[in-house]
């Protein structure tokens, strides 16, 4: 199918190509895969139409699920997919609205609960990037995203003249402009920043409050976004698939490997526009930049003191709550900060942690 963006789009998986020949070659993959198909296996359960291949049936279902067949027979609401309808039906069967039965968190409405369960608790990883944990609604979107991890130059001819972000389709650019640069009804009551999407506001507010609702079930560490939790969970795995091309070291997380390689090359790609100082990681650069701008986005909701870093806000809040999570394993004395506990253990008990350097031959 030739789109109005000048690209040739596959009607089965939404992949885009610059020429008709490339599209034809791609389409053969759909028509040659799984050619032998029993009629019962290739019949749509919604309308009874039979198809030649599983791929064609799969594409047809993508259309069918948007039909009124996904209507709740109790309240007559319609949904985009059968799975979304099934999720909704649970609340007519006595499930508590807005309550996650898996982690016991509560949400203001059914839509936000569905997103939470789908993105955080689903076991289906088909549309989840194994590198960074981002979740996508379609296979084609995931595959396109994965190319950024492989260092490929992506064709993005449509550029937003307001923020410089690029897109492969004109329709995607239009959606971006309407979403990000036009009507922004959701306002942050901390800093008055506005957003077009409520979810974006919720994520932003966590920056002020220090809230980290995504908790690792192995070590208890919290994260403000599910992608951060997904990346962190690799720390608990024994697999180290990312090797340094220069030395024998291996890493569990690709980002850690990339930063390590920069230590060999001396590359510091993040340069401060105020003082010219360069940094190896975006995180350190962002923290440094706040020194120049005076930005203190993490504000205590009890006393109003603001901080540059979320961790400092977390420690500060313990003054108000009285929480002292750092416990001396020798005498049981508790401290708000880990550094104070380590100092106590060193001074009072003579405990010194010896760092052993590994020597590789």
UniProtKB/TrEMBL annotation:
Q: Name one GO cellular component term.
A: nucleus
Q: Which GO terms describe its biological process?
A: regulation of DNA-templated transcription
Entries under Gene3D superfamilies matching the protein: Classic Zinc Finger
Listed Pfam families: zf-C2H2, zf-met
Kindly state which keywords UniProt assigns to this record, in alphabetical order: DNA-binding, Metal-binding, Nucleus, Repeat, Transcription, Transcription regulation, Zinc, Zinc-finger
Parts of the chain that traverse the membrane = none
InterPro entries listed in its UniProt record:
Znf_C2H2_sf, Znf_C2H2_type
| SUPFAM superfamilies for this protein | beta-beta-alpha zinc fingers
Q: Which residues form the C2H2-type domain?
A: 8-35, 70-97, 98-126, 127-154, 158-185, 186-213, 214-241, 242-269, 270-297, 298-325, 326-349
What compartments host this protein? Nucleus
Any one GO MF term held by the record is: zinc ion binding
As for what it does, the entry says: May be involved in transcriptional regulation.
So what family is this one in? Belongs to the krueppel C2H2-type zinc-finger protein family.
* Name of the protein described by the UniProt record: C2H2-type domain-containing protein
Source organism per UniProt: Ranatra chinensis
